[in-house]
Design goal:
single chain; alpha/beta; Rossmann fold; 9 helices; glutamate dehydrogenase (NADP(+))
């Protein structure tokens, strides 16, 4: 999903560095997304779980990502516990990131669950500056939210395209197994980036063919 987002931004002459991003969820997709976005210099403002959202106004750091992994993958704790590890983080009980955060945002990366971004929330985010949506969960945006993205020219990457990286990586693992190969993590990542680039180009060209430029 991060690679698809990067492709969308490059198409518009932009880059991830310095962009303010809201992530929902705190599982594998959110964690790996956070890691990759930090690598590109983005500012990640939120994580969440089923109990609520934590906002880090200065952006999460690589050290905090390690704390998230320990908290969620080892301790099986709640995201609210991160407030004890940061003097600036604020927890919002029972709220999603789009409800909890009210300042400027460039990108949302919904990674939690289906239908987690409503039409009303999408319009709120658009007023806050939203320009890009890349989906990490399966169908996290409601129909009303998707209509709002298109109506306001928000670059929107639906899960079936942006979230194809997981299936693609499984395919790369099968390729290695069938050929008795063992690739490095760097090799797998390079192959994955190439696959996501091809998916983006196919989406882009199809949209333009049918007069829907930017509708991925």
């Amino acid at each position: 999903a991060v690679y698809f987002l990067k492709e969308m931004m490059q198409e518009n002459g932009e880059q991830l560095k310095g962009k303010k991003i809201l992530i929902s969820g705190s599982g594998n997709v959110a964690q790996f997304g956070l890691q990759k976005l930090l690598d590109y210099g983005a500012i990640i403002l939120s994580l969440s779980d089923s109990n609520g959202t934590i906002i880090e106004p200065n952006g999460f750091t690589a050290e905090q990502l390690k704390q998230v992994i320990q908290l969620k993958n080892v301790k099986r704790g709640r995201i609210s516990e991160l407030t004890s590890m940061s003097s600036t983080a604020v927890y919002f009980e029972g709220k999603r990131p789009w409800e909890a955060y009210n300042d400027h945002v460039d990108v949302i990366f919904p990674c939690a669950t289906q239908n987690e971004v409503s039409g009303e929330e999408s319009l709120k985010l658009i007023k806050q500056g939203l320009k890009y949506v890349t989906e990490g969960a399966n169908m996290p945006s409601t129909d009303a939210a998707i209509h709002a993205y298109h109506a306001h020219k928000v670059s929107y990457a639906p899960a079936k395209a942006s979230n194809a990286g997981g299936v693609a990586t499984s395919g790369l693992e099968m390729t290695q197994n069938s050929n008795r190969l063992q690739w490095t993590a760097e090799k797998v990542d390079t192959e994955l980036q190439a696959i996501m680039h091809k998916i983006f180009v196919q989406c882009k060209n199809t949209a333009e063919k049918y007069g829907k430029k930017g509708n991925y």
